[in-house]
Specification:
The chain is built from 9 helices and 10 strands. It has 285 residues and is an alpha/beta fold. The chain folds into 2 domains: 108 residues, Nucleotidyltransferase, domain 5 (2-Layer Sandwich); 145 residues, ATPase, nucleotide binding domain (Nucleotidyltransferase, domain 5, 2-Layer Sandwich). Strands 3-2-1-4-5 form a 5-stranded mixed sheet.
Length: 285
């Protein structure tokens, strides 16, 4: 038997399937594109294509901003918030974890865990300067991929300090530093430090960050941000093998933990082939 977890966010939708041994059997990461229902169906088709035809889903759980819509579409046995799912995944891979840093496309979180229990958490407010979309925008402005942006950040030094309190101030500060002759690698490294400082002063305000620290979210692939976190926190940062899908993995782990004795409510991968009709308030008709 297998277990399905789906994390439907505002920017990306993630799916993960675990086997009985809690090993990852398949995963999908795709843009939500403003249409979460379509993203869920596309994700189901994609993950089904990568799994053996014999795979049966015993139980399914959903999380993310559109979790209730996703639950109605697939027939979920469990609906959980992102904090719980991220924490469950972190504890699964690093049992002694005490802090989870999660930075996604448009939001970011910090989760404090003590003795295997969530004791506190924080989320970003209104500023995007501590999220992945800010990095994507700056990389595009510099006419480079986010991968090149990450590589060049690792080459930079700590010579350039960028204002990180606001995306507008950060961007104007970058332009000023470029015009002043600062090296681009140093500017990019400074930008990564600025994002991390903004994250810690906003999302992490008043939170005691203790190691081990796990870093989740698509931004965890950015080596420049990982390096900046290490320098700002003065501690090691653990990045799991699949940081971008940890919410979905946590959901799948909870689906397994809470699975009914027989088959759950999951409607099957075939639901992705049916035409979905939504009411204006988002419910399925």
């Amino acid at each position: 038997m297998h277990y399905l977890g789906i994390d439907v966010g505002s920017i990306t939708t993630k799916l993960a399937v675990l086997n009985e041994d809690e090993e990852l059997a398949g995963s999908v990461y795709l843009p939500t594109g403003g249409t979460p229902a379509r993203a869920v169906c596309d994700g189901l088709r994609q993950i089904r294509a990568g799994l053996p035809s014999s795979v049966e889903i015993k139980s399914a759980a959903v999380t993310g901003s559109a979790r209730h819509l996703a639950a109605a579409i697939i027939g979920a046995d469990l609906v959980k918030n992102e904090i719980t799912c991220q924490a469950v995944a972190a504890i699964h891979f690093v049992p002694e974890v005490q802090t989870v840093i999660e930075i996604g496309g448009q939001d970011s979180k910090i989760i404090l865990i003590r003795d295997g229990m969530v004791t506190d958490f924080g989320m970003n407010t209104v500023c995007a300067a501590g999220t992945g979309s800010f990095l994507d925008h700056q990389a595009a402005r510099l006419h480079m991929s986010i991968e090149e942006f990450s590589r060049r950040a690792l080459k930079g030094t700590d010579k350039v300090k960028i204002s990180g309190r606001c995306t507008v101030f950060a961007e104007s500060d970058m332009v000023h530093k470029q015009q002043s002759g600062s090296g681009l690698d140093d500017i990019i490294a400074g930008l990564c430090r600025a994002l991390v400082r903004n994250y810690l002063s906003d999302v992490g305000s008043g939170k005691e960050v203790k190691p081990p620290v796990c870093f989740h979210g698509g931004v965890a692939f950015n080596g420049g941000i990982v390096q900046a976190l290490k320098k700002e926190l003065k501690m090691d940062i653990i990045v799991p093998e699949h940081p971008e899908i940890m919410g979905a993995v946590g959901a799948a782990l909870l689906a397994r933990e809470n699975a009914p004795e027989k088959h759950g409510k999951f409607k099957g991968f075939e639901i992705s082939e049916k035409e979905l009709k939504l009411a204006s308030h988002g419910d399925l008709l």
